[in-house]
Amino acid sequence: MNTKRLSERLAAVAAFVGPRAVLADIGSDHAYLPCHLALEGRIQKGIAGEVAKGPYESAVQTVREAGLEGKVLPRLADGLDAVRPEDGVDTVSIAGMGGPLIASILENGRTRLDGVSRLILQPNINAKAVREWGMANGWLITGEQILKEDGKIYEVLVLERGSAAYDEKELLFGPFLMKEKNEAFREKWERERKSWEIILEQMGQSSREEEISLRKEGLKQAINLATEVLGDGENESK
Prior knowledge:
seven-stranded mixed β-sheet; alpha/beta; 2 domains; TrmK; disordered C terminus; 22% strand; Rossmann fold; tRNA (Adenine22-N1)-methyltransferase
């Protein structure tokens, strides 16, 4: 992966960046995403935010080698502290972190989102936490993608300003993804369901029934939701 050729995961994120956007890529690592978009002429300006010195220095080097000084600005900052009012950022991307961490970054940096109209988020795990944050904070899910790369499955979520009420099923599986149900979606949730069933069976052999009863009910609910979404009701957990 480099500035000319992104991984499939980052290419999916890039595809949701609107033309002439001013992009802040938080946790940008080598700044490949904003540099790639800048070289293609798809963004006006990019911010490459990094909280760690090593990745920040890598971003500086990438920008220099690509000849994009002044077009992509590496910044050493914690989360959305990389965004300044004078930047005019309208799009924020955060990729390659856990869902709860992404939600935490957004929550802690809420005042930096005033001029932002689109969030493109790629949680490695627990995308539900991102959807829950969006629903609670005035962001509507306008697009989703799920894909498999190098044996791992990734979800990409696009949030824009608006209000929506999602049920438990939509929060867990994604309102767009559960309608499409592509191959990656089915693989992910069949695997998750199998894992939940194994855990539930092991819990059933425990003598600490009172301590784990709530956890068991949560697992049963998740298994039933997965079964319903995947469309094979004969395997429904009782």
